[in-house]
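re: that complex we talked abt at group meeting.

here r the seqs, copy pasted straight from the sheet so there may be weird spacing, ignore it
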Amino acid sequence: MKILNGKWSAITVPLLSVMLGLFVGGIIMLVSGYNPFVAYAALFNGIFSNTYVLGETIRQMTPLILSGIAVAFAFRTGLFNIGVEGQLLVGWLASVYVGLQFEGLSPFVHIPLAILAAGVAGAIWAFVPGLLKAKYHVHEVITTIMMNYVALHVVNAIIRTYLLAPGERTEEIHQSASLQSAFLESVTDFSRLHYGIIVAIIGAIIMWFLLWKTSTGYELRAVGFNKYASEYAGINVRRNIILSMVVSGAFAGAAGAMEGLGTYGYMTIMPAFTGVGFDGIAVSLLGANSALGVVLAAALFGGLKIGALNMQSVAQVPTQLVEIVIAMIIFFVASSYLIHWISNRVNKRGKI
Amino acid sequence: MRKKYGFMMSAVLAAGTLLSACGSNDTSGENAGGGSGEGDKNNFKVAMVTDTGGVDDKSFNQSAWEGLQEFGGENGLEEDKGYKYVQSTAASDYQPNLSGLVRDNYDLIFGIGFLMQQDIQAIAQQKPEAQLALVDSVAVNESGEPLENVASITFKEHQGSFLVGVIAGMQTKTNKVGFIGGVDSELIKKFESGFKAGVKSVNPDAEIFEQYAGDFNAAEKGQAIAGTLYDKGADIIYHAAGGTGNGVFTEAKNRAKNGEEVWVIGVDRDQHEEGMPENVTLTSMVKRVDTAVMEVSKQTMEDNFPGGKVTEFGLEEDGVGIAETQENVSEEALKKVEEYKEKIQNGELEVPKTDEEYEAFESSL
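got the structure back, here u go
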């Protein structure tokens, strides 16, 4: 168990979980009458075989990075932000709104402005659960989940009432706010790869910097470890809870901007949640709530999701199977934490 | 010791996975090579991309896939090689799915539903050599001109809706009928206008209630609205609301159980089944997506790809009409339907498609 418990555990646990997840996925394929070798080969080809799928993989991982760090950031303060999905939707709408309303700006002003608007919208959406938690001790899991539904319907209503264009969506944003790039399209055979990946990487760096290189980050993490001890040490716990939710919401909103300014350039009326926000929970868990880990986990999940399309097309394995693989990976990560925790307890007791 | 053993087990399993993954690359390489080398009698390859509903959605996608299967069967194509479908799990999948099929050199690729319009238009411009087809909308470029490599398929839903409107107008006992739409849009307006015109043509005094759910996938809303309309006295409701319409059936069946005489008119496919066992489906307005898919595939295989054109399927092409199950429709109503069908086909009667056209139509009665 040393490998799973030592200082390398942050790497070995996720790696082993991924392998076990793929393995169990293979067994399920076998049981359901598919050839796992053919399927995984198709999956692999669907991620790496040409520049188009590579571009699409990076495109898919871009919002996942941001939603992942949104979840991870709140988690470091001991908060479960299940509301990333809703914060993402309001961020998406805000970015598209700014992209539509302002004309004639330079891209260097317009794009940051639109992303900022998305971040602020997400932050406001996360502020409500943060405030309720800090002031009235309402559990954030419940409020954030409820805020997701509020976001979904409010966003749809706003689009339908004020921004509707033919085809159940908004108009296309102005070119000056777009993250899309003819150059990136041309090198990846017209994939929808856009400059948002740079924004996402910057987001991950900001998260790392905030948490590990500033005194505010130290306070946030201290609250996450033990809020009573933090309070005793003179840290304002309420303020830090709200701050953590707000920053987390801002990252989630930025994830929405990636869809609004990059992938689509507009927003459609949503029949259901996008799932990107919920996938962020999985990404953050697999990435052990660290900035680098989240980027790697987002790359994995983005790849699996894009590869699944080819797996379906070539090997006729339903894309849902990849969802099962992802679920198994999370299951193994979670259970390894459990094993970790139990073995720690046993060791401690043994010593006493 | 036991823990160590457990870890070793998992390590062995993991290694097994890795190795098997390595081995798999070769097998697939062979497979791919073998597949393309065989060379079927007929090299035509056609595929469709569904939206998130999938091919078992009891509606649009299913109908399209049935059409494609029939086409494949007739022409000796092999499933998954000659013809196949790819399902999208999210709206963001439309483009990679379509693009993947283009790169696999499919001769014809269908995008099912107007939700895919944007993605089809993008790919059509990026890959001028691809042959695409869009169902339920018209693909255009930035300046609004039709794209040369996209066959747009639309239906004259107003004509079929007119016929079910005739039936509703003839068979209502309360002289009140209802219409429930999914999302207020150009497409659904065609259903509404045609239906209302049909009702008014045979029953000028009938009162028509119309309401939109704002959603194609909210059965609970459909049920609530149906409840309201039935309470207002309507005894027949025509729904053009996809999944939302399932709630209309639920409400009608509940009322039928309590002895009320209420009816639903189904849409897209013959929805007789949905009304069982209380048997509340009066008739359905069928939209033959399968016929359209077959027809366009056939034309393309014969090198007559209708690119840049809008192929409209109406009564004449058997693209729309009333369902085969007619046990609840009166003889008299069926006769009237035939009468009007003829009038529409020979151009004597122009069925309205929009609110404005309907108003003009109504005042001309």
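couple things i noticed - The two ends of chain B are 91 Å apart (CA to CA). Residues 157-286+330-364 of chain B form a domain with the Rossmann fold fold (CATH 3.40.50.2300).
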